[in-house]
């Protein structure tokens, strides 16, 4: 008979139900005192009120009442122990950065700045939401007119750029500038309106490393027919990009983004540690992996801080985590206002539990760099990127930081896709079976018929195939969105 419970660490006070368990059912010499839904937690021993409850070998909160062995452990008897900003002690020693080991690579597009794209597309961006529909119309017409000459023409739109001030405007400008220099774009058209706060010239000045030969821009107010002007600009870009071709590239040229959304009780058991294996494979090969969603690090931040490669990286991590906590506090919100309703329904109770599962996406590589929102990666190894947990905002930030493939784990499922090709990795086989048009890989197999190492080899092969041009489910479905982090007032 298949096992019913999974205890992750010998020190754990709870186990995860691998199937629904009925009241009074005896499993693994433990009698269930409550019905335990699949993916939820059962107490392995008696736990007094106030005791720290362990999962993953670490505390995930405190018991709010006495919990008897065999009881369902969830929101009714377990609560977060997180507070506000904290002090953190630097580790006594700092791990050395990873020494790269050559690994099989992929077929990519090498750009003039040395970075490598996994797609050769034309991207159309807007400075302001007023011309969002305009750029969508240009992209739709261009895809009809230039079909087959490049790997697609995509409009990435947003509602901002007008009536923004200070750092909020700076965030918008910096994010768009970083996207404009993305290696997956063989050409970029930026369309402005003309009177917006996010002036086109200022955006271009803030954009790092754009190849001027592959950039076109104009303001709609300055053109008699903005659609015709847009099509002419795209045609000029297509004529350049269609001469590009894929070449063999090592894993050291790969940049992967790490993301989870719609987590459930299996996220930290299957998909996230599996993606962590991929992050380690990429880091070992000299490539770059990027972890974000800083509010979903709270409660597990010390595990990352212990992996900082230098005092500067450690201090930057502390500043990023505490700065994000201050962002919540300044807005009158508790730092632990997470998990989401879907997470809770799937068995995740506290933010500590969610975070301890989420950081597993980063594997075990040393933490080599900390990036501000809108900043690009500047070297190999694991990077920690400033961005919130929101799926669209954080995934767009990953792309802006340079991710050319995004690995997105999910226990609930989502159709969303983002600027970089996004692989959806199901935490459970039921989701993969129900939503085959959304899901690219079933990580639930590690609980059934495949070892984590075997699944990691299979997933790595899929990552490299995707980097070489194989479309993801989201790409096949036309799901390509972006979102900007709005942090300030609006005039």
TrEMBL record:
The keyword Lyase applies. InterPro entries: GD_AH_C, GD_AH_second, SAF, SAF_UxaA/GarD, UxaA_altronate/galactarate_dh. Keywords: Hydrolase, Lyase. The keyword Nucleotide-binding does not apply. Transmembrane segments: none annotated. It comes from the Bacteria. It is an enzyme of class 4 (lyase). One of its GO terms (molecular function) is hydrolase activity. Residues 12-79 form the SAF domain. CDD domains: SAF_AH_GD. Its EC number is 4.2.1.7. Belongs to the UxaA family. This is Altronate hydrolase.
């Amino acid at each position: 008979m298949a096992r019913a419970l999974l205890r992750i660490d010998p020190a754990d006070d709870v186990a995860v139900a691998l199937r629904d368990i009925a009241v009074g059912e005896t499993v693994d010499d433990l009698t269930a005192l409550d019905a335990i839904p699949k993916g939820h937690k059962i107490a392995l021993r008696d736990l007094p009120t106030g005791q720290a409850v362990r999962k993953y070998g670490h505390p995930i909160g405190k018991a709010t009442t006495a919990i008897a062995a065999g009881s369902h452990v969830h929101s009714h008897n377990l609560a977060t122990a997180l507070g506000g900003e904290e002090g953190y002690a630097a580790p006594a020693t700092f791990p050395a950065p990873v020494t790269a080991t050559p690994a099989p690579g992929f077929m990519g597009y090498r750009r003039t700045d040395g970075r490598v794209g996994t797609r050769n597309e034309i991207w159309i961006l807007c400075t302001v939401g007023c011309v969002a529909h305009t750029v969508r119309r240009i992209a739709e017409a261009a895809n009809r007119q230039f079909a087959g000459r490049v790997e697609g023409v995509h409009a990435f739109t947003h509602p901002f750029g007008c009536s923004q001030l200070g750092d909020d405007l700076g965030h918008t400008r910096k994010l768009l500038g970083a996207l404009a220099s993305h290696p997956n774009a063989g050409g970029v058209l930026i369309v402005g309106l003309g009177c917006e706060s996010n002036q086109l010239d200022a955006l271009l000045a803030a954009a790092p490393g754009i190849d001027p030969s592959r950039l076109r821009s104009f303001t709609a107010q300055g053109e008699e027919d903005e659609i015709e002007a847009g099509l002419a600009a795209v045609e000029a870009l297509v004529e350049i990009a269609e001469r590009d071709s894929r070449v063999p590239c090592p894993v050291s040229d790969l940049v992967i983004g790490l993301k989870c959304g719609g987590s459930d009780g299996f996220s930290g058991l299957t998909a996230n540690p599996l993606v962590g294996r991929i992050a380690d494979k990429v880091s070992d090969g000299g490539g770059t992996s990027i972890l974000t969603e800083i509010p979903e690090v709270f409660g597990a931040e010390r595990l990352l801080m212990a992996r900082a490669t230098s005092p500067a990286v450690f201090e930057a991590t502390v500043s990023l985590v505490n700065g994000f906590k201050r962002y919540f506090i300044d807005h009158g919100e508790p730092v632990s206002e997470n998990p989401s309703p879907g997470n809770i329904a799937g068995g995740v109770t506290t933010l500590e539990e969610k975070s301890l599962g989420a950081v597993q996406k980063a594997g075990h590589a040393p933490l080599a760099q900390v990036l501000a929102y809108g900043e690009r990666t500047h070297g190999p190894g694991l990077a920690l990127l400033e961005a919130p947990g929101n799926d669209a905002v954080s995934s767009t930030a990953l792309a802006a930081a340079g991710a050319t493939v995004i690995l997105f784990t999910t226990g609930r499922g989502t159709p969303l896709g983002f600027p970089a090709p996004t692989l959806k990795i199901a935490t459970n086989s039921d989701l993969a079976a129900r939503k085959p048009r959304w899901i690219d890989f079933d990580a639930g197999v590690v609980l059934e018929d495949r070892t984590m190492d075997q699944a990691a080899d299979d997933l790595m092969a899929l990552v490299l195939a995707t980097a070489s041009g194989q479309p993801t489910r989201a790409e096949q479905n036309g799901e390509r969105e972006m979102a900007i982090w709005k942090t300030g007032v609006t005039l």
